[in-house]
## 1
Amino acid sequence: MSTAPATPRASAWADTAILTGRGLLLMARSPATVTMTAAFPVILLLLLSVSFAEIVMPGGSYADYVNYSVPLFAAMGITFATLSTANAVHADRIAGFDDRLRTLPLSPVAPLAGRIIADTARNLATVAIVTGVGMALGFRFENGLLGIVAYFVVPLLYGFGLAWLMVAVALHAASAESANAALNALLLVLSFLSTGFVRLADLPGWAQPIASANPISHVVDAMRAFAHGGSAGDHLLAVAAWAVGLTAVFGTLAVRRYARRG
C-alpha cells in the first residue's frame, strides 16, 4: 500500500531568511537605491542646517547646530525610506511575485518580514552616510564606542516598527499613489512636530504635547544622548515601546491581510 508524500511544512524562520537574502541581493544589484535613499536627508541636512542654525542656537556655531540636527536627518532618512518598503511590497503584489510564492508551502510572515529585515541594511547605510556627511560638517561622537553602537541601533529599531505600519497600509491600499499620498502627509507632520529641528521649549504650546509623544522626538533625543552624553533611558524605552507596539499591531494586520488574499 503506497502512501502520499508528506506536504512540506512552512518554517517562518527559514522562509524569512531566504526572502531576506533575496531582498539583500536585489539591493546589491541596485546600489542606486541606497544612494537615492540617503540623498534626501543629506540635502535636507545641508540646506536646513544653514537656515535654522542661527535661529535655534543664536550665538552658537554652525557645528553646534549640526551636532544637534544630524540625528534628525538620519531619522528622517529612515522614516521616508520606509515608503520604499511599502512600494516594494505593493509592487510584488501587483507584479504577480506574491502569486508565485503562494504556490509554495511558505509562511505568510516571511515575504513581509524578509523585505523589512533586508531594508534594515539599507537603513543602516542611510544612517552611516548622513552621519558621515555630518562629521564632515562638524558632527562628533563624544560618548565612546558603546555610545556609537547605540546611536546606530536606535533608529534601526524605530525603522523596523514603522516599516510594519507602511506595509500594512500598502497591503490595504487600492493603489500605490493613494498609499503614498496618505503616508507622506503623516511622515511630514511627524518630522516637523518633533524636537528634531528645534528644542521642545521653543515649540508653540499646542505643539509641545504632540512633540513629546512623537516617536521621532524620542529617536533623535536618544541618538543625541548616545552621541554626546546625557540621559537616554526614558527615550530608549519610548522608542522600544513604539517599535514593539507598531510591530505587534500593524504586523498582525499585515500578515492577516496577506494570508487572507491567498
## 2
Amino acid sequence: MAQHPPVILITGGAQGIGKGIAAHFLDKRWRVVICDQNAEAISACRQDFGDPDNLLLITMDVSREPEVASAIEQAARWGKGLDALVNNAGLADPDTGPIELLELDQWQRRIDVNLTGAFLMVKHSVPHLRESQGSIVNMASTRALQSEPDSEAYAASKGGLIAMTHALAISLGPDVRANSISPGWIDVSAWQAHAPSEPQPLSASDHGQHPSGRVGKPEDVAAMVAYLVSPDAGFVTGQNFVIDGGMTRKMIYED
C-alpha cells in the first residue's frame, strides 16, 4: 500500500451495492472515487455523503474508452495513485425475454457494460495498480453459476467476468491481485438514489429462503471487498467468492 491514504475507485458506486462499498471505505478514511453513469445518483451522493475531502465523484460510462481513460487519470492525480479497483458497474435487470426474440443490441449492451466495461477499467488502471501493488475486485453474480429463464446475456456477461478474473490473476501477478465476488439476493432498497425513508420490509419467507436466515445487505459485500483489498488477503488471488447466505447450496423442490 502507498504511504498516502489508500485510494479505491468504485464503478457504479452511486447507488446499490456500490454505494454501500463506498460508504464502508469512507468510514475507514480511504480516499474514495465513485464513478457512475447516472448523474442524478451522483448528485444524490453529494447530498448523502456531503463533500468530504476524501471523496471524488465522476460521471462516466464504463463502456466508452475515452471516458474510462480520462476518469482513471483524474482519479490517480487526485488520489496520488490508485490502490484498489472495484468493477461494480452493470446493467442489473437480467431478464431480456426469450432468446429467439433477443435483439443483438440488447445482448451487446449487457456485454459492453458488464464485461467490456470491466476490461476497459482494468486496462487503464493497471499501470497505477502495479505501482501500488494493488488489487482488483470484479462484481460478478450468482447468476454466473445458476440461472432463471431468459437471462442469457446477463449470465454470459457475469460468467465472463469470473473467467476474466482468474486470467487477470495470472497475467498481473504477483504485482496485482484479482478476485471476484458473486452476490446473491442483496437488498439495496435503502441504497438507491432516492431511497424511501422507510423501505418496504422483506417478508419472513424472503429471509427464510436463505440458510443464513436473512437476505443480504450491501454491507455484507463491502466487508468482503475490504478483506480482499487488504494485506490480510495477500495470498488470495484468482478466486470467486459467493456471498449469498448459502442460497446456491440449498436444494429446492416444488411441492
## 3
Amino acid sequence: MSKHEEQQAPASLGTRLVRGATSGRARAIMSVGIVLGLGAVGTLAAWTDNATATSGVFSTGSIEMKLNGDPGDPTAYGFTALTKTGMMPGDSVTATLPVQNTGAAQFKYTMAATATGEAALAPFMKVTVLDQSCTTLIAGPVGLSTTAATPIITTGRQLAANTGSETLCFKVALDTGVLSAQQNKSINVSFQFAATTA
C-alpha cells in the first residue's frame, strides 16, 4: 500500500446518527433563519421627507468708462483740444481730459497710445501724463510708435463706482533731438483706455 493511500474505517452507527442529527438540526436552524430573514425584509418600511431652499436674485453689475462724458465706443472721442501745427524742436502742447466711471462697480484703468502717420517722427513725439493742474507727473515722457501700442499709464488708476472721476493733463512735446529730415511731417495719436474691475 502506498504511503499516500489511507484507509478509513467505516463510521460507527452512533457517529452516523450524531452526524445525521447535527446535520438535520443545522438545516432546520438555517431554514428558520431564512424564513425569519425573509419576514424581516418583507416588513421593513421607510419614512421619507424632503425640503427645498430657494435663493434670492443673482445679477451682474457693469463698468462704464467715459472720456469727458463720451463713452468713446464704437466711435472714438474726438480729443481735438490736443493739437499743434508748425512745431519746432522743444515745442509742446497740453490739454486736459476727464476720465469718468458711470458704471455700477469701481474699476482700475490703464492707457496706451498708438501713432499713425510718419513712422520716423513718432519716437520724437514724447507724451507725458500729469494731474489736472498739469504739475504732478503720472506717467512719461514716452516716445510713440506707428507699429504697436505704447503703454503709457501702466499702473491701474482706480475710480469709484457711479461718480468716480479724475482729469488728466496730456502734454505732447517734440524732442529737441529730432532730425531735420522730419520737417513738414505729421502724426496723429490714438489713446486707448482699458478698464477692469478693481
